[in-house]
């Protein structure tokens, strides 16, 4: 079976690294006004989106450092 969208691998790994960092930077000014649970939920949504659009490695890379 032919593989379609072969560019998804490198792009999904790049998105796995940059998307949670970008969201964290955007949410930084709202740190005092937003609850931690809302911020965690938004980060989970980003990780799930990267994992579903990319490959398994992208999901693991996106979730790895954020699992504290």
UniProtKB/TrEMBL annotation:
<feature type="transmembrane region" description="Helical">
    <location>
        <begin position="40"/>
        <end position="58"/>
    </location>
</feature>
<keyword id="KW-0472">Membrane</keyword>
<dbReference type="InterPro" id="IPR038318">
    <property type="entry name" value="KdpD_sf"/>
</dbReference>
<keyword id="KW-0812">Transmembrane</keyword>
<protein>
    <submittedName>
        <fullName>Uncharacterized protein</fullName>
    </submittedName>
</protein>
<keyword id="KW-1133">Transmembrane helix</keyword>
């Amino acid at each position: 079976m032919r593989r379609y969208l072969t560019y998804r691998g490198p792009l999904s790994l790049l998105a796995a690294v940059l998307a949670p960092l970008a969201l964290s930077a955007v949410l930084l000014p709202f740190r005092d006004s937003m609850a931690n649970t809302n911020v965690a939920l938004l980060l989970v949504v980003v990780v799930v989106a990267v994992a579903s659009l990319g490959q398994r490695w992208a999901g693991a890379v996106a979730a790895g450092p954020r699992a504290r």
